[in-house]
Design a protein that fits this description.
With 634 residues, the protein is mainly β. 6% of the residues lie in helices and 57% in strands.
């Protein structure tokens, strides 16, 4: 087996020869809004940032949001199967709940017991652009932004229409249509719809005495719609309204004990997820001042049940939540920078049963924030401060500061410090339920927020066609909320974690070839016991090679994931046991050919060498898969 230290040495030697860019996939002149909540070129952003465009998503032929994210720096993905199955996205070793996910700048509704986004449920057909910032951003956005921020943007950039149809392994089918039209001089209308289906594959290795009672068809189906209307009132004011929704159906593994349950006992193995979101806003721009008022309403219904008995049987669960959001942001350009200030309000309401609560509950948060950035000669200075008032635990203040110095033309050193926090979920605060087996779960209304401190030092540069960025970071989280098992189970703040790591990311061109490369090293530990945290790969290498020859656009994706640990409860020995998940190397290949100016055919082979590996103990990955897609633009 290859020594991790030997691999580190080889990796650093390779990266010394191939220096890369400050943000892979990111042109320095691109404008982003997610880093500091105002428009700025990527070159002025001090935090590590990656931007993914719809063109790149089509090139990769990604059929899920998780497939997009697994390619990005600092990301470690765990999947319990294929499309529609449970997945978690860890950024720089932090928990999935520490990644703040925004949809067009508005928080994704995560009212469940875990408070973490299940990005395998969000339809990739809606994704037009991704802005991904690594590192704590609570001083800008408030709760959750301990590991990073992911802003999924659904708005098309261009006038026109597109129809796409695709087929693939495991019965995969996808049909998508989008259009954006200008009506008169001042009105733009955009609409989209999509349907995705997969019959799935056998996802479970029966290592530990569990089974599912109602067949092995782990399929997935999604229906999606999206509508946006934007109207320019005059040179200063614009208004818009947006509605989107999706319905998902999936079958998952029931975790039914072969030894301690009867065949007729219910075991939830079906999921129906319904999401409806409505946004409206007004924007104002005049000279150096701009302002935006945004309002959003989201409702999510998440049914889980045994398919033999239906979703209204007593063992079935329903998470039924509403989320209300209001944001008012103001930006003023000053000198060679900006000052940004605003207020956010968010309220979550749940029906009885949601997140295992016995009655309707609600929490609200109001945040006041101030951010600023200024360039002075060869220095860029940046700062932010934010105070949040949570309805349960009162005020909480976070802050961050960064500085960048271009000490030689094309070379810059960056240092930053940031604090962050994660508020307890509704379920952790107010859960109150009795399980069929007799156990009791009680929430803890005295929970404190999880808190973090992060230090980061980066060095970046451009050398001819080569550009690079090296980042070293340390992130400490205290008051981590843990599940305490007992006759009466509950939650408590009782552990600390520390994350130390290195990232080297970048891109270069050699002839007709375009290279993108990421190396990441992570040491993630429980600070109380010094044990390594589960499901975190110590090392990853991600490499993307693209080239065009005789109008054929080709691509190869390579990903190395090192060995990682996991735990499982063994129903035969009645113990929680540790297990090691072996490392793996996975290759994908893609090709695209324009039949005409309007019609493009794309093909993909995923997991080219049919590697058999797991990212979560007991759950298989798909093996080799084939996909064929046709896309028509007009």
């Amino acid at each position: 087996m290859t020594s991790p230290y030997a691999l580190s040495a080889v990796g650093l030697a390779v990266f010394s020869a191939l220096s890369f860019s400050a943000s892979a996939n990111t042109n320095d002149d691109q404008i982003i809004v997610s880093a500091n909540r105002f428009q700025q070129p990527v070159s002025s952003v001090l935090a590590p940032v990656t931007v993914v465009t719809r063109e790149e998503i089509d090139k990769w032929q990604s059929n899920s949001v998780v497939d997009i994210l697994r390619r990005l720096p600092g990301v470690d993905v765990t999947q319990s199967g294929g499309l529609g199955q449970n997945s978690t996205v860890s950024v720089r070793g932090t928990d999935a709940k520490h990644l703040l996910v925004l949809i067009d700048g508005v928080r994704l509704n995560n009212a469940g017991i875990s408070g973490q986004p299940d990005l395998n449920q969000f339809p990739v057909a809606l994704v037009q652009r991704v802005e991904y910032i690594r590192g704590a951003r609570s001083a800008v956005y408030g709760s959750d932004a301990i590991g990073g921020v992911l802003n999924i943007i659904t708005i098309r950039d261009d006038i026109g229409s597109n129809i796409t149809a695709g087929i693939g392994s495991h019965g995969y089918q996808n049909y998508t249509g989008t259009t954006q039209q200008q009506i008169g001089e001042n009105t733009r209308v955009t609409a989209a719809g999509a349907y995705t289906y997969s019959k799935g594959f056998e996802i479970r290795n029966d290592y530990d005495g569990y089974y599912t009672p109602s067949g092995r068809d782990y399929g997935f189906m999604n229906k999606t719609y999206w509508l946006d209307v934007n109207h320019k009132l005059n040179e200063q004011f614009s208004v818009y309204g947006r509605a989107y929704g999706y319905d998902n159906r999936s079958k998952y593994f029931a975790m039914k004990s072969a030894e301690w349950s009867r065949p007729e006992d219910p075991a939830n193995d079906r999921r129906e997820l319904e999401n409806r979101t409505y946004d409206a806003g007004v924007t104002f721009n005049q000279d150096d001042y701009s302002s935006q008022l945004l309002m959003s309403y989201s409702r999510v219904k998440d049914y889980n049940y045994d398919n033999r008995y239906g979703r209204y049987e007593k063992s079935a669960t329903l998470d039924n939540s509403k989320q209300y959001s209001v944001q008012w942001g103001n930006n003023y350009r000053v000198g060679y920078g900006s000052i940004n200030a605003g207020v956010d309000y968010q309220k979550q309401e749940t029906e009885p049963g949601t997140a295992l609560t016995a009655e309707s509950k609600s929490v609200s948060d109001t945040g006041l924030y101030l951010t600023a950035q200024q360039q002075i000669d060869n220095f860029i200075l940046e700062g932010a401060v934010r105070s949040d008032h949570h309805s349960q635990f009162g005020w909480h203040t976070t802050w961050q500061t960064s500085a960048g110095w271009e000490f030689i033309d094309g070379y810059r050193v960056i240092g930053s410090y940031a604090t962050g926090f994660k508020a307890p979920t509704l379920g952790q605060l107010y859960a109150d339920t009795v399980f069929d087996g007799g156990g009791i779960l009680k929430g803890n209304s005295n929970l404190k927020p999880e808190e973090s401190e992060q230090w980061e030092l980066g060095l970046e540069g451009d050398t001819g066609p080569l550009s690079w960025k090296l980042s070293g970071y340390r992130n400490e989280i205290k008051n981590l909320i843990e599940y305490d098992i007992g006759m009466v189970s509950t939650y408590s703040n009782r552990s600390k974690a520390e994350f130390k790591g290195l990232e080297w990311v970048g891109e270069m061109d050699t002839g007709i070839f375009h290279h993108q490369l990421t190396y990441q090293y992570l040491d993630a530990r429980n600070k109380d016991t010094n044990e390594r945290l589960d499901r975190r790969a110590r090392q990853q290498v991600k490499y993307q090679l693209d080239w065009v020859i005789t109008d054929v656009d080709m691509g190869v994706t390579y990903q190395y994931i090192s060995q990682r640990a996991d735990k499982f409860y063994n129903d035969k020995t009645y113990k929680t046991e540790s297990v090691s998940l072996g490392g793996t190397s996975v290759f994908d290949i893609t090709a695209a050919y324009p039949i005409t100016d309007h019609l493009t055919i794309r093909g993909k082979v995923a997991n080219l060498f049919d590697k058999d590996y797991e990212t979560a103990y007991g759950y298989r990955t798909a093996g080799r898969e084939y996909f064929l897609t046709g896309s028509y633009n007009f």
